[in-house]
Amino acid sequence: MNYLAIDTSGSHLTVIAKRGDGKGEHVYFNENCALRHSVELMNAIDQTLKNANLLKEEVDVFCAVTGPGSFTGIRIGISTAKALAYALKKKVLAVTSFDVLAYNMITADALALVDAKHSHAYTAGYSKGKVDLPPAYTDLAEINELGKGRKIVYSSKIDGIDGEIVSLTDGLKNAVNAKLYEATDDLDALFPLYIRKSQAEEGR
Questions:
Q1: Buried (b) or exposed (e) across 123-151, using 16+ Cβ within 10 A?
Q2: What is the pTM of this model?
């Protein structure tokens, strides 16, 4: 299947387009989008599809990274993927930020970390590509213990945590390739993964 994958869950912006016949693939990656996802995303999509020799109408699956991560960024990616799938009557696929990290280590048990600041991280454990420790909001003091026997992976260094920085692009590509069979016509399958409330909600 042909797919377009979008990751706006952090300060980065990733867009990947791939033809199922192997005749076209392109990866767009902006390491620091400075939270300008809403401005840059559509141009990035157009450029990526063109370089992959794909038309929007030829995409079978629109994928979005659903979090955890930037509250606003996640919503931008999901709404864009949903809008394209709805307009073109295509399938959608949800991939989490944890998947993007853990699928760099497909053959190893992994603990994926997303920095939540304030001496905490969002965590999820994987064994043989499947989640075996559900997503949680975890104190950094607990993480090294939680990660025993696992490869701890993150996208950028977290002080006090002995882990490995992994690729956001390779991980997204691997995750989508592994999960394409989960693509669905149900657009509501794309929804944000918020492990805890936003700061604004907690302040109410």
A1: bbbbeebeeebebeebebeebeebbeebb
A2: 0.94
Q: pLDDT tens, 20-69? A: 999 999 999 999 998 899 999 999 999 999 999 999 999 999 999 999 99
Query: How far, in Å, CA of 181 to CA of 60, rounded?
Result: 12
Contact 92, 187 (CB under 8 A): yes
Distance CA 203, CA 200 (A): 5
